[in-house]
Amino acid sequence: MRTLVGDGTWDWPQGHWLRVNFVTSVDGSAQGRDGRSGSINNDVDVQVFHELRRTADVILVGAGTARAEEYRPSATPMVVIGHELPALLADAANVRLAAGPLPELIAGIHAEGHHRILCEGGPTLLGGLLAAGLVDELCLTTAPHLVGGPGKRIVDGPSLDVPLTLSSLVEQDGTLLARWLVSRS
Ligand SMILES: NC(=O)c1ccc[n+]([C@@H]2O[C@H](COP(=O)([O-])OP(=O)(O)OC[C@H]3O[C@@H](n4cnc5c(N)ncnc54)[C@H](OP(=O)(O)O)[C@@H]3O)[C@@H](O)[C@H]2O)c1
Questions:
Q1: In ligand 1, which atom is closest to the CA atom of 62?
Q2: Cis ω on the peptide bond leading into residue 122 (within 30° of 0)?
Q3: pTM recorded for the entire structure
Q4: What are the tens digits of pLDDT across the range 20-56?
Q5: What is the mean pLDDT of residues 148-169?
Q6: Whose Cα sits closest to atom 43 in ligand 1?
Q7: Which of 22, 109, 111, 149 has an alpha carbon 20 to 30 Å from 15's alpha carbon atom?
Q8: Which residues, including other chains, have CB under 8 Å from residue 134's CB and lie 6 or more apart?
Q9: Site to substitute for ligand 1 among 125, 142, 177, most atoms within 8 A of C-beta
Q10: Which H or E run contains 166?
Q11: Do 144 and 175 form a contact (C-beta atoms < 8 A)?
Q12: How far apart are CA 135 and CA 119, in angstroms?
């Protein structure tokens, strides 16, 4: 597999930036057979996933995802949005729990000096961030699989209409890695 990272494709813009990273199947599911994303992602996606983590100031994740994906502490500080930290994260020094209105939570993260915020989902949190107009960019991997079933799409919650502009599209072994920018009018 060729190295996908390091050529600037996933460099962060200057200033405050909220980037979201998701993987889906070709039929649009954010969950594989086991109800998690691990069964639809692949080595190509994992390579970019780790690059995005490595270069972020902070990881933002919903409690549902932290629970379902059995999140563990990362070298990058983590903010879990929800009302209870999963056991695997409970004692980590660089993980904290936060709840409340999302604009205030994001402003608080900026005030701590974190500019590059990487949100790893899940769909409920992404729906909330989009509704609040807080998302700048969506990194979306489309893995070459069809999975059917009842899997969630990447956005959950009330209907939205968020226009996007394609910033870049990389193909590797049939996997599509897109960077979509939220259009600001
Ligand atoms: N394919 C992918 O790339 C990908 C990425 C992420 C997740 N997923 C999948 O998505 C599924 C989880 O979906 P989900 O929608 O339940 O995940 P989620 O958004 O991570 O978690 C939902 C929970 O997060 C908390 N939360 C979210 N928004 C909040 C807000 N505005 N204010 C306060 N708390 C908020 C609440 O926690 P409390 O219940 O504690 O209040 C809520 O129950 C899992 O199966 C996971 O594998 C897939």
A1: 20
A2: yes
A3: 0.97
A4: 999 999 999 999 988 899 889 899 999 999 999 999 9
A5: 96
A6: 64
A7: 22
A8: 18, 102, 103, 106
A9: 125
A10: strand 164-172
A11: yes
A12: 9
